[in-house]
Design brief:
Oligomer: heterotetramer
Strand order of the largest sheet of chain C: 1-2
Structural class of chain C: mainly alpha
CATH class of chain D: Mainly Alpha
Helix content of chain C: 55-70%
Strand content of chain D: under 5%
Largest sheet of chain C: 2 strands, antiparallel
Shape of chain D: elongated
Number of domains of chain D: 1
Structural class of chain D: mainly alpha
Chains: A mainly alpha (521), B mainly alpha (173), C mainly alpha (745), D mainly alpha (99)
Number of strands of chain C: 4
Radius of gyration of chain D: 17 Å
Distance between the termini of chain C: 103 Å
Number of strands of chain D: 0
Chain lengths: 521, 173, 745, 99
């Protein structure tokens, strides 16, 4: 049982997909998808017990390890798991087999390379969530880029090259800034203590002046803001989603975007708490998040292409996550984390459905659909459910997360929360017309009349997602409990090292200040 | 005092013939002016006390390399009906300008060294070695002792050059 | 099953004497409809599966049949055409048993609890916590249900009227191919309504709040193959969402200012806020915005008339009896907060009164029988909001209850009429509009029971003496007159600088006119539908016959409730009303005493914050005025309107003269919204996409950076001329630069 | 002894003339001559400094001469090869190696 105490579970989770990728490449094409499926299933079976073996009590990292990798530069193979990264690992492990199932009949050429890329991508993503050595983190961060580039570039839609290159350049540019930040930290640490190390723990203990913190925070924040994506840097996402194959869109929306918010919570906030909690930063990111919510919701409404519409909605959703993170209180951050999971389940469901629809109608344009409920009722049922989960109907994960984020934001910036709450209306404004034009209305196209409904495989693929969405909405308590200590530690760190210069946080409704002190236990 | 006068004389010859090499349109003329430069340089070498190098300069440079040049010019019959191969006036101005700037910089850089070297008091280092091993020995001993590796490499280089030249110039039969 | 319920009732009553009251199977009441939904849902999926498999088998024979696929369109109402074998499949028979059965069980449990609670004087509400829903820091939201007098009353209304409507739906919808799906949605709706009503905290109520919004979206757009129906459903959901936005903001304010969201804690800590202060007023205004969205008051009422696109029982259940009353329930539940914010309460009353009148005027000139009833519902809701706005919370709840009875009866009656007409038109394949009154006329000869029940309900809604409407509506109008005389706590408050009393005077007048118009348009509806010559056409007339028992029984029960409903709250103090006090159920002003513990919080707030009111004396003239207004409306309709002159839609135009034109076109409010809200938002969205997203952001990234890099590359390339001199020159420049930097250092 | 600076100035001048020649002339042969000139300027500098910096200067001169010879040989071979193909030694015929 100590397998789950030690770091071996994490090492297995990170490198099993890579081994699967190699095997998939070697075996003949027909075998590739089965190898990928088995790897995914094993990955999921190994990962699920983590949910129970993870003690929610301690706030410190669990399953830690620190093996020398390149000792003379102080680069160690350092892994660790805590409340924030646990659910991201589980989400990735869940999505892998589903993605393989989703692209069972979708991918017809070069299956071997496709599944190898998919598995390599999972290794990269899993590595990002568990790495505690900044160098190792950066390696995995870059490693994730290449397979994703090929996924979009090779198996994508019409102008996939444009989308793939744009995706690559955006993320790479951001990560270069982050690299500069990491190296600067490394040099400061070396100058201060003499020996060299990239450990996350060491950088945490590094005293930085406010100027340094500001610049370093900016470097990290831009890299993560591109990934989230935050408002002005978001235009790569719709392009990438429209061109990506189903599995590409699912992993992109399900997990890759969360690397941005995870990055903020793991690196940007704790490493540079002073800069992160400065009023200007908080206000800037909250306003950007707010624009992200309202603006992209409105833009989403007018999209002719269903996938592009869903892509813009995920920008809107993650706008909420940004709000939650920079509310810097327990409700806000827990809301952001729940949103990362809820969005990581509801949006992939939408993309799977659109993928299935594409396999039947060979189009993502909304006007090619219409009245599909008459011909494929089960699909219609699933699409309506996924749309409602995405809108954040109470009883689904979406509501719990948006509610927590709004409460968190309201305590810090009432006006921003007020406008953000109108995002609830815009959510209905962009999702319902799409659902109606796709599933309801009269069945005009004769071609749509004869398309087959969802088969067993497809339903088996969607049922776990539906279950998790409902579980998140109805009984999120076990998840919230497991996150509480880590989030508490993060907030406590940000609060204690707030700059003396800024006179405390923004004016919170006066009468609430009494209740605030109580919260900050 | 005589040597200084001779030095300036030969320096003047060298500069004029260098300028003529560059400016003559006829390749043969410029080749011959180049030979003139080499002779002036050889004289300056001897004035500076490097008699062996002066001799070698004439023997190898003027004798061998320039002959090779002239031979090639004759082989390719470039001596006559050559059209002016100067580039546009823009390039002329740019070339002259960059040359002057380069000159100014070199002079500026080089100018300061004498005071530095004199300070190190190494004026008659060479004279001592020449006295001990003789003119040729003074160069021969360090070449075969300290610089034996570069020597071998240079030998190899020359071999490669010869083989290369033969292969390149040979008519593909 | 019924026996067991009786036993539990006796034990409970016995136990009640002992003072302790334990709610019976509270969780089960809520769970029953959910179980119903699950069963019907599975039936619906299997029905869809079999239909699709048959379509594949049949279509694979002769390449897809046209008729099959539009089985979902509402023209072919009957599953018979789609069902070649003639026998009704089990997936269609099962819901007929499960759906009403589940509702009856829930109603029985509610009644059991009623008996239990009647005996004991329950001061504190009973809260049952099932699990901790969102435990984050100081925010501890429990998934808990709360049982007190108000929530029990609402449960009774929801399950009672709901059960009747489910029974009615069995007759009305059983031939529809999507019948199991319909029953599943209906059960799901009742589940969410019960969660809304029995929730113990604002977030749990919000779950029900949006859940009923979802179900009304699904049910309005039930015949989704028609674009108009799907649009109506979408419109309902989005407008409801605007209301839910208000509710959400209110919850945020409550949590940030009071630190909790459960009712008990919130109403305990409410006095901490300063009386009539900005915070509590903001909370109440946003709560009211939520109520306006859900209960279709000005300005967010536009979705209700369009919601008539759904099946008629849906209109009866959702858009008359239960969902739309959620707003009133919210205000009564948060009465302590509203008492703390007099300005907000007065605004609620004012909006209610204006909506009552405004909707009544539109109702005058509608030809679609369901549209008339829809605007009547909006108007009656206006009455309820006026009541609760003025602080007469019990009057509001009383009218809510009676309205549930007679409006459900009216809607189901109109459903029966439409169903009969449909059957007739279906037989003769005529495509006339089965809902247009101009196609009806003289139906009392063909649909006697429906006519009788609707007549009773019309008298009730008009406020004619013994019927329910008389007691409840006139109590509201009475309260308005009393308030204008300054004898209500809120008459001392002021809104926009005008005193509460004067506002209530205006409200009284508005309500009286609205009452008169209500009587008039209800009279008009009855006249055109049931009196005068029959205009449905020769061939169809033979096929006109009374509807089956499953549809008539609910009508009769509701008609009976409309008659006796008024006697639940006979106030002996009021002069004319006290004539009926001997017949009152449960003693004098039974409902007032029953609900008193719920509104104690509000009364304490008034006691501590407003001047004591001397003795409230009830004059008799308001009641006389009310009776006069009701009767006058009906008589005027009978006199003025000539049903025999009315022709079919082709003959009589929809309106003559521009006043009627304005009324028929609903004061052009929809068009106004379209122009000032919907179109600008779409325009802005398109502008955002094309100008900002494509234009500037992508323009900068792709254009400036992308193309800029390309151009830079090209121009740099030109330097490579291939000639050695150029390269030599570049090298020299390099040398110069290096030497230069050395010299400069 | 001879003024050191003068010799160094002379080598600078010769070097500058050589560069000017390389940039201006189009004839390959003359180009090579200018390069030889520049090499000689360098040799002069070596020799001028050798009394101060030691005999190594003069040893290096020999290597420079050797390199120059090798370079001249290969260069001229290339010129012959190109000439055979393009009938002229103008370096514009050598301009294929570009983007």
């Amino acid at each position: 049982m100590d397998f789950y105490r030690s770091h071996w579970v994490l090492t297995f989770l990170v490198f099993a997909p890579l081994i699967g990728a190699v095997v998939a490449l070697v075996l003949p094409a027909a075998r590739a998808r089965w190898v990928a499926l088995w790897t995914g299933v094993i990955e999921l079976l190994v990962a699920t017990p983590l949910f129970w073996t993870f003690e929610p009590v301690g706030a410190a990292m669990q399953n830690e390890v620190a093996l020398p990798w390149i000792p003379n530069w102080g680069i160690y193979y350092r892994l660790g798991l805590d409340g924030i990264s646990l659910f991201m690992v589980l989400l990735t492990a869940l999505l892998l087999p589903l993605m393989v199932l989703g692209s069972w009949t979708y991918i017809k050429d070069r299956e071997r390379v496709f599944y190898a890329m998919l598995l390599a991508l999972t290794t990269g993503v899993m590595g990002v969530f568990v790495a505690l050595d900044m160098f190792l983190f950066y390696v995995f961060w870059e490693m994730m880029l290449i397979p994703m580039y090929f996924l979009i570039g090779v198996w994508g839609g019409k102008d996939r090259i444009y989308a793939a290159v744009k995706f690559f350049l955006y993320t790479a540019a951001g990560s270069l800034l982050m690299l500069v930040g990491i190296l600067y930290l490394f040099s400061r640490y070396q100058a201060l203590t003499g020996e060299s190390s990239f450990a996350y723990g060491d950088f945490l203990s590094l005293p930085l002046t406010s100027g340094e913190q500001a610049w370093l925070f900016a470097a990290f924040a831009i890299a993560f803001a591109i990934k989230v994506p935050v408002f002005p840097l978001h235009t790569w996402l719709p392009a990438a989603h429209v061109q990506a194959p189903t599995a590409g869109s699912v992993i992109l929306a399900g997990v890759l975007l969360k690397m941005g918010t995870y990055g903020f919570l793991r690196f940007a906030l704790p490493l540079f708490p002073g800069a992160a909690s400065a009023d200007t930063t908080v206000l800037l990111f909250m306003v950007l998040g707010l624009i992200g919510i309202i603006y992209t919701a409105m833009v989403a409404a007018v999209q002719p292409n269903a996938k592009r519409l869903v892509a813009y909605t995920s920008v809107a959703h993650l706008g909420f996550a940004v709000l939650g993170i920079f509310a810097l209180n327990v409700q806000g951050i827990q809301g952001a984390l729940i949103l990362m999971i809820a969005h990581g389940v509801s949006t992939p469901m939408l993309f799977f459905l659109l993928g299935m629809l594409y396999e039947r109608t060979h189009s993502y344009e909304i006007e090619d659909f219409g009245g599909l409920a008459a011909s494929i009722p089960i699909f219609a049922l699933m699409l309506v459910f996924a749309a409602l989960a995405s809108i954040g109907l109470p009883g689904t994960g979406g509501f719990v997360s948006e509610f927590l984020v709004l409460i968190g934001t309201f305590r810090v910036q009432p006006w921003i929360a007020f406008i953000a709450a109108s995002g609830v209306i815009f959510a209905a404004f962009y999702m319902l017309p799409m659902v109606q034009r796709t599933v309801f209305n009269s069945l005009t196209r004769p071609a749509n009349r004869a398309i087959p409904d969802l088969c067993g495989r497809e339903i088996a693929l969607l049922v776990p997602l539906v279950a998790i969405i409902l579980w998140l909405g109805i009984y999120p308590r076990p998840i919230l409990e497991r996150m509480e200590p880590s989030v508490g530690r993060l907030i406590e760190r940000v609060e204690t090292s707030r700059f003396v210069s800024t006179p405390g946080e923004a004016v919170v409704a006066s009468s609430a200040s009494s209740s605030d002190e109580g919260i900050r236990e | 005092m005589l040597s200084q006068i001779l030095f300036y004389f030969f320096a003047g010859v060298a500069i004029v013939s260098a300028l003529m090499t560059v400016t003559r349109r006829n390749p043969v003329a410029s080749a011959l002016w180049l030979v003139g430069t080499f002779f002036a340089l050889a004289a300056i070498y001897t004035l500076l006390g490097a008699f062996f190098i002066g001799i070698i300069q004439i023997l190898v440079y003027a004798g061998a390399i320039m002959v090779l040049f002239l031979f090639v010019i004759m082989l390719l019959n470039l001596g006559n009906d050559f059209e002016p191969d100067f580039r546009g006036t823009v390039w002329k101005v740019m070339a002259a300008g960059s040359a002057l700037v380069l000159l100014a910089l070199l002079v500026r850089v080089v100018g300061g060294t004498e005071s530095l070297l004199v300070a190190t008091g190494g004026v008659d280092l060479v004279a001592a070695q020449v006295a001990e091993y003789g003119v040729v020995g003074a160069i021969g001993v360090p070449m075969f002792l300290d610089y034996v590796v570069p020597l071998q490499v240079t030998g190899l280089l020359l071999l490669v050059a010869v083989v290369g030249a033969v292969v390149l110039a040979k008519r593909d039969v | 099953m019924i026996l067991r319920v009786q036993q539990t009732a006796e034990t409970v009553v016995a136990e009640a004497q002992a003072g302790a009251f334990e709610p019976i199977l509270l969780g089960l009441i809520v769970l029953l409809p959910l179980i119903g939904f699950a069963i019907n849902g599975v039936a619906a999926i299997l029905a869809a599966r079999t239909a699709e498999r048959r379509r594949w088998s049949s279509s694979s024979h002769h390449g897809g049949s046209e008729g099959e696929a539009d089985e979902y369109s509402n023209e072919t109402h009957s599953v018979m055409d789609a069902e070649p074998t003639g026998v009704v499949p089990w997936t269609h028979r099962l819901p007929s048993l499960v759906a009403p059965g589940v509702m009856l069980l829930a109603f029985a449990l509610a009644v059991a609890n009623l008996f239990g609670m009647m005996g004991v004087e329950l001061e504190e509400p009973i809260v049952r916590t099932y699990w901790s829903w969102i435990p984050v820091g100081e925010l501890q939201v429990e998934a808990a249900l709360q049982l007190d007098q108000l929530s029990l009353l609402m449960t009774l209304v929801v399950t009672g009227v709901g059960a009747l409507i489910h029974l009615f739906s069995v007759g009305y919808m059983s031939h529809d191919p999507g019948y199991p799906r319909y029953m599943a949605y209906l059960n799901l709706f009742v589940f969410f309504m019960l969660v809304l009503v029995l929730g113990a905290s604002f977030p749990v109520m919000f779950v029900g709040w949006e859940g009923v919004g979802l179900c009304s979206y699904l049910l309005i757009g039930f015949w989704f193959s028609e674009k108009a129906n799907a649009d109506a459903g979408k419109k309902a959901f989005i407008v409801n969402r605007i209301g839910d936005f208000g509710f959400l903001i209110a919850m945020l304010l409550i949590f940030v200012d009071l630190g909790a969201l459960g009712y008990v804690e919130v109403f305990e800590r409410a006095p901490q806020l300063d009386y009539a202060g900005p915070v509590v007023t903001a909370i109440c205004l946003f709560l009211f915005l939520g109520a306006v969205g859900k209960s279709a008051q000005i300005p967010l009422y536009v979705w209700l008339p369009d919601a008539m696109a759904g099946p008629t029982p849906v209109s009866a259940l959702i858009h008359a009896a239960t969902m739309v009353t959620a707003g009133v329930y919210l205000v009564v539940r948060a009465s302590t907060l509203f008492a703390m914010a007099p300005a907000a309460s007065l605004l609620v009353a004012l909006v209610g009164a204006v909506t009552a009148l405004f909707a009544a005027t539109i109702g005058l000139k509608q030809w679609d029988i369901k549209k008339v009833l829809a605007y009547s519902t909006i108007s009656q809701l206006g009455f309820m909001f006026a009541a609760v706005g003025m602080g007469a919370y019990v009057a509001g709840v009383f009218h809510l209850m009676t309205h549930a009875f007679f409006k459900a009866c009216l809607f189901l009656g109109s459903g029966a009429v439409i169903h009969a007409l449909h059957e007739a038109m279906h037989a003769t394949h005529s495509h006339a509009d089965a809902q247009d009154m101009r196609n009806m006329g003289g139906l009392r000869r063909y649909l006697p029971i429906t006519f009788a029940t609707m007549a009773i309900a019309t008298l009730a809604i008009a406020g004619v003496a013994p019927f329910a409407g008389f007691f409840s509506k006139d109590e509201i109008v009475g309260a308005a007159w009393i308030g204008s005389a300054g004898e209500l706590p809120l008459s001392q408050a002021s809104l926009f600088g005008v005193g509460g009393g004067t506002w209530m005077g205006m409200i009284a007048i508005l309500l009286s006119i609205a009452a008169f118009l209500t009587a008039f348009y209800m009279g008009r509806l009855m006249l055109y539908t049931f009196f005068g010559p029959n205009r449905t056409g020769e061939a169809e007339r033979q096929h006109l016959h009374e509807v089956g028992w499953t549809m008539s029984v609910p009508l009769i029960v509701l008609a009976v409730m409309s008659t006796i409903g008024g006697f639940f709250n006979v106030d002996s103090l009021v002069p004319i009303v006290n004539l009926f006090s001997p017949f009152a159920f449960g003693g004098d002003a039974a409902l007032h005493n029953w609900l008193h513990p719920v509104i104690i919080g509000a009364e304490e707030v008034w006691a501590s914050n407003t001047a004591a009111i001397p003795e409230v004396h009830h004059a008799s003239w308001p009641i006389l005025l009310a009776i006069l207004v009701g009767v006058a409306g009906l008589v005027l309709a009978a006199v003025v309107l000539k049903p025999q002159l009315l022709g079919t839609p082709e003959e009589t135009p929809a309106y003559e003269g521009n006043l009627e034109k304005v009324l028929y076109n609903k004061w052009y409010v929809d068009e106004l919204y379209q122009r000032i809200v919907v179109r600008p938002v779409w325009g802005l969205s398109r502008a955002f996409y094309s100008v900002v997203d494509r234009g500037t952001i992508d323009g900068i990234i792709d254009g400036v950076l992308g193309r800029g890099a390309m151009l830079l590359g090209l121009s740099a390339g030109r330097v490579q001329t291939g000639q050695v001199n150029t390269y030599a020159f570049i090298i020299i420049v390099g040398v110069i630069v290096v030497l230069g930097s050395i010299v400069v250092m | 002894m001879l003024p050191l600076n003068a010799a160094l100035f002379l080598s600078a001048i010769l070097f500058a003339i050589g560069t000017a020649g390389v940039v201006v002339r189009r004839n390959a042969i003359i180009l090579f001559m200018c390069i030889e000139l520049m090499l000689n300027a360098a040799n002069l500098a070596f020799v001028a400094l050798s009394p101060y910096a030691g005999i190594d200067g003069q040893v290096i001169v020999f290597f420079v001469i050797a390199v120059a010879a090798a370079e001249a040989a290969v260069g001229l071979a290339i010129i012959i090869a190109v000439f055979r193909h393009a009938e002229s030694v103008d370096i514009r015929n050598f301009s294929l190696l570009r983007w």
